[in-house]
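new request in #modeling-help
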Amino acid sequence: MLKREINELLTQTGPGTPMGEMFRQYWLPALLAEELPENDCPQVRVKLLSERMIAFRDSDGRYGLIDEFCAHRGVSLWFGRNEESGLRCAYHGWKFDVTGQAVEVPSEPENSRFCAHVKLRSYPLVKIGDVLWTHMGDPDNCPPLPEFEFAHVAAEQNYTSKRWQECNWLQAFEGGIDSSHVSWLHAGGLKSDPLFKGSKGNDYNMADFRPFFEVADADGGLFVAARRNAEEHSYYWRITPWVMPSFTLVPPRGDHPMHGHWWVPIDDENCWAYSFDYHPTRPLSTTELEAMRAGHGVHSENIPGTYRPVANKDNDYLMDRDAQRRGEYFSGIKGIAIQDASLQESMGPIVDRAKERLVSADAGIIKARQKLRKAAVALRDQGAVPPGVDPTHHRVRSAAVVLPREEPFIESSRDALTSAPGKPHASV
Amino acid sequence: MRQSEPAVPRPPILLSSCALATSAAEARYRIDAPIEGRQGARVVSLDDGAATLVRRLARLRWNGARFFTLVATPLGPDGSGATHPLDMALHRTDGSTTRLVDELGQADVTVMVATANGNAPAASTIGRACARRGIMTAGLVLGDRGDVGDTVTALRPYAQVLLVTRDEQDVAEVLTALRA
């Protein structure tokens, strides 16, 4: 249960809102690098944090993220021409560079100084790994670049996809730290998904449907651990890190790649789910890559040429009641990503948390909301930098470990929960 | 057996009969029945540090939560200060005394609050009593992780959910979220 005003505070991320200002403290995924594959390629419309922008890659390979609309008459620059180191408006030929600076206004005299005073709002756009990242806050307070491990491993060790999710970012993100749904909603996937199946950890998962949970503070967010019985004197721990505002890692299974998500608000009723798989010590195999591209694991099969899943709210997510009866998919929906998306979207664009009936197993969600609220208010009232901005907070990993029953998970897994280049992941 | 094929998407008859009913406009047709507060929350402090907080919380307005502190008596063989675990005595925050077994009768969740000196035998007694009755248990341990390790270890077997935090406001947050 959450008071309405707090629900609004947490879910609204437009300019000037407390949570919107907090998101603007971070480097955020803005789009996939594949969306701007070469110099002078077609520009792309981008909406983030309720701001409409155009992303483009100029003739010199520089990336730009600028106001979508021309400074002259408000025409969308999506119709413009990306040519000769700038984006030229199709209406009257005004041209802007990657910083949003007007560099040509054809109707003005050649030696006019008019251009110097025309600049569209722009944000930096930087390629790290498969993702183009942006910082939409005050440029004077721009933090160092992100250091999430998935974005820094070699290209052949990583695969990143994204999908449009038609609901507020918070209810999508909360699924990422809600460990108790996995044994139900995703039970079928543990047995059949090529990127999940075949680990000893799955056996522990399926043998114990009543896990114990432990939530621990971390400098950048939280660790949420689910504990199940393993052998007579040991527990099987699945440890999920959350780095604020919305980065989570799924605990690994066997030698499968590690995976996780970044949830980024498009506006208050839509978000991007960036989903990635990476292996810290080896390239992804052809089989693994094929499975990821086909929408297995945390990925989705998208409508070609778009980032909208094939199974979406227009077609009832391709509900298959026979598969549900057979126990193939617990909810009747195929694929782990769409299983999550379908249920989270079914809650409505912004779920009314004043009507929830939370239980103590939701402690991770309760704590995460509290941390988000406190950070947003501290930023608003005291200018405090929120957790997760510091790149040292990004150096985390998820872990799946078997520990003697008397050992605490955090202290015993400290090394396993810290990323380092080339270090094997802790997985069962 | 023939494997059935995925259902062919069919055009919806009514907006509210398909997943498109997730729109904000359709949300106004959700049944808006009042939600009852939880009546069965029991909050027990396991040490003096937590007792101060629990007494303070008890003064706030709650749905039906009851707040208790441990009775400081010499520990019996089971460490609880009682001859039988279910006879374990608790103080209400008004100073009167009650028995654990009586308070668990209508309980559906017991929240144990502790700091660095959490009473492990009491946690064991409460945890076991709750387990027998199908009552959910949660442990909230306040303090730096390095200082509360023993308390966390003591609570781990008996708290189905364990939250370790430096922020004592979390106790009120959790109770509010649970509609306690």
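bot summary: The first strand of chain B starts at residue 41 and ends at 45.
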